[in-house]
Amino acid sequence: MSLEERLEKLRELLGQGVSLIDHPEEDVEQPKGADQMESKSGTESDALAHQDDLLIQHPFDLGHQFSRSSQFDGAQDRERAVRHEKAFDCSGFRVGEPLDRSAVFCPVKVMITYPERFIGKANKPLAKPFFSQILKDRVWDFFYLHDPKEPTRDPYLLVPTAQFEVFLDKVNAELGISLSIPKGVNEDKFAINFGEGGTPRPRYLRRSEDETALEIRPWPKIDAGDVSRFNSVTAEKKDSWRSKMKLVKTGLIANKGNNEKATRKQRDRQKMLLDTQEYLGLRSSSVDLDVVFICVDVEAIERSPNPISEIGFAILDTRDIRRVAPGPCGENWRTSINCHHLRVWEYAGLRNFQFVHGCPDLFDFGKSTFPRKAHVRREIMSILTPYINDSRNIVMVGHDIYQDIRYLSTLGVNLLTLNSLVGQVDTKDIHQAWRDDTNGRGLSRILSELEIPNKNLHNAGNDAYYTVCVMLGVALEQMREQQAKAQ
User: Compositional bias of type Basic and acidic residues: which residue ranges (predicted)?
Assistant: First the structure.
């Protein structure tokens, strides 16, 4: 199995967002002496050849697949020996049991990004294969941690920091190099402790001894006591816990420039959410916005040359909902959404099945139309023109909207040049703003989180309708939570 195939298997096991991230070499933070990590030679290599007599045995030793074992000699090596003894003391834990507050953990996503960020150019190609097979023939005690703000999400994974240090010791013994947890500002990223003031602590998941150990369904549910205690602690302790959790989620160790960029993106997403609430009339505005939301979703055939096969539109006119109470999660406003589903005649017989399961025949909110490819632009403009001619303020809506806008531009429709366009709403972005999350979520995941019934996704017309439902749900739920906190 190639390195890339092993990495893909690891991504499947550890979840979306786990990857070896490529960065320009000048941006890689090196530990002290990283560029001088060269192979040992001479007397030291001779000592390694005879180190079996000095090996401290452990019934769950990670090193049985290596051709060499760790040598413990001198103060530093005695420290490593103690670490080996203490690294595997979790075998008696039950699922869901937390460790003591003094325990320190390394997030799995931080661990996986180690080669790209903390190994020099000479040794990176040698060390990468160990990280790409990090589950194979090795023992880890995995812990999980839920975010109380996202109680329905799968938990995030961590391992005891001592076990990651043992893993580095074994790589060092095999390659004759000196990998270690970096010192300085990055050291704390690999050794995080939780539980201050009663905030949630990682809970024991299971002992992993092979690549299938994390194929777990269902995952443990969030502990109700963790949620209750988190909600009762001070704002200062919540902020401290969230800053640690952000690292657990992303695995990113950002430099100042990346931090500024992330802050700017977060600020833009927050503004978009506030604007959405103004457009809906949920927040006061100095002018009558009189908005029409036009949501677009495009489906393309997954095989090259990836022609567009479906275009869906969902339109919500705020004039139709002004005197209607939104209801829970906006359910009373959903009946005012008007939908259109265009299927390009030339590709109507094709279905996606490899990456998504397309269902172009299952449009649930009206009748599909079948324009020929040469007439698709005219059909799209016939949907938009009444609102343009009526001088209405148009707000474009989509889930990862720029991708759909790019697709439509290939058909000769540039939505960003409409004179009546006053704003855009990306439901992926406003959901991130609501949840204060750096990772975007798929439409299906957000619908489940909002408990909005849905079916036959990956039909462009259905997806456009549900995207508008998500926009309403996020805007209303964020305000409901905000008001509840104020009270």
Answer: 29-46
